[in-house]
Amino acid sequence: MESGRIRTSAPRTAPRAALLAAAVALLATAVPQAGAAHPGLTGPAARAAAAGLAPRVDLTVLVVDDGGSAVDAIIAELKGSGVPYRRIDLADPNRPVVDAAFLSDPSDGATGRPRARYQGVVLPHESAFGPDSAEHRALQEYERTFGIPQVDAYTWAHPGVGLDHTSEGGYSGVLDGATTTVTDAGRAGPFRYLAGPLVFEDNDPSVAESYGYAGRPRPGYTSYLDLPVEGGGRASLVGEYAVGGRRELVVTFAHNRHQRQFRALARGIVDWLTQGVHLGRSRHYFSVHVDDVLAPDARWDPVRDCTPGDLDCAGGDGAADNPIRMTAADATYAAAWQKASGFTLDMVYNGGQGEQWKSAHGGTDPLAARLIADRAQYRWINHTYTHPFLGCVQDTGVVPWRCAQDAAGNTLWVGRSQLSAEIRNNLTWAAGKGIAVDRSELVTGEHSGLRTLPQQPADNPHLAGALADNGVIWIASDNSREPGQRAVGAALTVPRHPMNVYYNVGTAAEMTDEYNWIYTSRADGGSGVCETDPASTCLPAPLDTATGYATHIAPREARTAFSHVLANDPRPHYAHQSNLAEERLLYPVLDQVLADHRALFAANTPLVNPRQRDVGTELKRRAAWDRALAAGQVTAYRVGSTVTVQAPAGVAVPVTAPEGTRRQLVLGSVPFGEAYAGSRSAWTAPELLRTSVTLTLPTA
């Protein structure tokens, strides 16, 4: 880069099918006029079309998949936000033929209206079926007739998609670190939720992570995302091409579902594809649980490369060897940080641990006093009274530990009475301090009681009863072990993302030392775990303990957390009270996530900070919705400005629609949903005695 502009270079080899499309002019058929007959329709359907009767358009997206990362990324966005779609695998020899009968129906069977089966089409590129094929012609005719938008997931800049070649004042090449801008048209349209510049990821300077083609717009093309290029002016990477009565959203940079630039644009791509009306909804969720509040945490030993008190660390007791625990000053800082950042932490507390600390330290505990004085500033979650292991009885005579057994070979379990007492006593402690706790939420120590592989492959059989005894509905689980929600008796799990800021460190040097031990090879002095674990990779060299946390670990963890935010993932993140103590390692990570979000998104797209019960409810609704879609039990369509959705009784329906949309009631109507990202959206269900949800879209 030079002077902030992208240097022009000769284009690399374009995708093969896209190159074929460059030589083919798009069909230039006029937009059908109101009252024009629908091609191929006969009888009552033709008369309905001629009379200007609006067609029925089903709220389903057609996805034509070539197996590439660009289409996969869009599928991930559709699936993650609950948008119904039908996927066609181009590599499947038995796939259906895309023709007029596949795409539409002359009549919906009830009113005689013509029916469009898909509200939008996603293609790998503009001529995925071949530019001269019957399927290509059928698809374009369908899009013209019903006004159906098409997304070209990844192509190159050429006249066939409304762009001049890169040699004519554009750019082709690596985009790592490039600063792009959403244009005025983009902000007025599908990307109205973006505020600041969008910087392409550059996570590893030694690796080319993004490649693209930026072209100069031709007549009919409206740029939504562009960048400066050498020689002056700007060239487009994302835009709308209107030609021959059709509209295409043209994306000319390669991407995958994990990259920040795609995740930031994904919402707008779906909004454009569906003309702002679709099933599904999404938010930017971010909540952080701070476990072990009031308890001390053991400290990493950089000499023995283990944590005293752990079963695999010979010698020493973690509780006695200089444990890590917040101070009153740390609690004061936490309250001030929350106020300044506008973000609320969930304090996951152990009242009994606090009482034990108080008794061992002269009967006073300034930390507890400060937290209790500021109790209304936090959310509080029950973490059991003394934080014991609540699964099987552990046999610690071996490493790793195993479940103890009786003489008959039966597993010994922590009993229901002890489980229930740990939950109940912590609630009683909080009530005595005036701390408001939702008794429906619980986080057990180490997520114990739930199955723990490999030693304990089943839940403690007494756990479900103890949860019911105490009114627990939402029990936390570890997302790295169990990403899906599941039932534990009448309760449901709420998976949480573990943050890679360790529980057993209070300083950046300790954190980096342990990180090096885990992520460096034996030859470099590490454990070598990264060499044998297929899910891990080794650092090229150990990090400097003086700078490694600030320059490598914290930015990576912030990037991971932010990726969850952008992916409509409501699952909480969790760290530990030790991360708010001493050098307060958690704050740089949180500050970066909050700063990145503020810099990129407009005020109409705030972070949503749900508590555990709200996350559980969201996941429960999503699971029921996904099951209904998979079973074909949802019917949803649009006729003119009216949207109708039918789903099984008891299944909440996620819907997104433009501002100004109203929900029809038995008597009158009310504004629909909640404002978010420039649209209205909500989980909704039919009124009593009704079988469907009906929305009226704004006509202006």
How would you describe this structure to a colleague?
The chain is of the alpha/beta class and 700 residues long. The protein folds into 3 domains: 16-23 and 37-275, Rossmann fold (3-Layer(aba) Sandwich); 285-612, Glycoside hydrolase/deacetylase (TIM Barrel, Alpha-Beta Barrel); 632-696.
Features:
TIM Barrel, 3 domains, alpha/beta, 8-stranded mixed β-sheet, disordered N terminus, 35 strands, Rossmann fold, 9-stranded mixed β-sheet, 700 residues, 17 helices, 20% strand
CATH architecture of the largest domain: Alpha-Beta Barrel
With strands numbered from the N-terminus, the spatial order across the biggest sheet is: 3-2-6-7-14-13-12-9-10
Uncertain parts? 1-40
CATH topology of the largest domain: TIM Barrel
Extended strand count = 35
CATH superfamily of the largest domain: Glycoside hydrolase/deacetylase
Can you tell me the number of structural domains?
3
Measured on Cα atoms, how large is the radius of gyration? 29 Å
In percent, how much strand structure appears in the residues?
15-25%
Instruction: Please state the average pLDDT score.
Output: 92
Number of helical stretches of at least 4 residues:
17
Query: How far is it from the N-terminal to the C-terminal residue, by CA?
Result: 44 Å
Assembly context of the chains: single chain
Structural class by helix and strand composition: alpha/beta
State the helicity in percent bands: 25-40%
Assign the CATH class of the largest domain: Alpha Beta
Question: Main beta sheet, described?
Answer: 9 strands, mixed
Using the alpha-carbon principal axes, give the shape. globular
